[in-house]
Amino acid sequence: MSTLPTRSARPSRRTVLTAGSLSLAGGALGLSACAPPPSYELVSPAGAVDTTDGLLIDGELVADAALFAAAREEGRVSLYTGYVENSEKEVVKAFTADTGIAVEMIRLVPNRLLERVLSEQGAGRLGADVVRSSDPANVERMFAAGVFTPHVVPGFDELDDTVRYEGGSYYRCFDPAFTFGYNTALVDEADRPTSWHDLVDPRWKGRLGITQAGAGGSSLSLTRFQLEVLGPEWLEALAANEPRIFDSSGAMQESLARGEIDVSTAVVSSLNISMAKNAPVQFVVPEEGFALYDYFVGVAGSASHPNAAQVFLNWNMSRRGGSVFADIGEYSTNPEADPPTVHGTVLPAVSTGLPHRPAPEDLAAHQKSDQEFWNSAFGYIG
């Protein structure tokens, strides 16, 4: 294995990113200097959308005629979401293209989202028609506060109790894959890490990025995977490599794309979107597996646009919604969905055991002790 260049020998960030863009474009210097490399559409359009008698997408009835007419009359839906902004924008764009219904999106990190939802709900002024969040404990608190109203989506009976909750009050709609990735302009292919155990090699000291364990449901799920599969000693060895600690995965992955860190824990879908925009990043499917974490969605009981909200939820849980999530890089919970394929890499099926999805009750049982261990290992005080 070749030796990595030292930090002092590395080119400037501007030089690095230019080189990465040229490499990804695969073109000559002169061509790349004249124009940026082309981006591409991440999400494929629906094959066929029929609105003559309701909303029928690729042969699947998403909304009957009465519901769809009422939703189109309302014209828009308000979405409060904790989902990564660029990923949610892809979902919104596909939904609006399919339905003609506009989406007004407010995006906050999950803990801030919880604060806003509970505050507005308590004051009787919740502005959301639909709420999406990744932290099961937060979603349970929203449910207990009366945020959601039951809605039975098409195919409800085919969904199991890990997908539908409280009689359809909210649903698990997809699971992102939390693994790690690297900056291809800074890390040679021969030197790239392929295993979680590679990350604790001292050669990466000071060159890593991670999120703090309390950043949300994603970080809690990753910490649970790391402790269960890799062990507490591995996490302490990672801490010894003095990683840069971020409060959100979105900020961390932007830093990776800019070349401010070489390697970081990473959500496949977020890197997929960055790669679609020609950022010099790549994800890894490590031999030990990776973490999945849940995203939930539900219709607000006080929705100002209840019909549009129901159509949005139906679409999220449909085959079409599942294919959009898979294009982005997420594991859909639709029973007919295949594992995502990202840049030609087919991610392993859940049945292989490589994607590790901790159950919400396991996360809740271990949340306090996992957070305390992580804070102690990394000397983190928030």
From TrEMBL:
Superkingdom in the source lineage: Bacteria
Alphabetized UniProt keyword annotations: Signal
Record-linked SUPFAM superfamilies: Periplasmic binding protein-like II
Record-linked PROSITE patterns: PROKAR_LIPOPROTEIN, TAT
Protein's recorded name: ABC transporter substrate-binding protein
UniProt organism field: Kineococcus gynurae
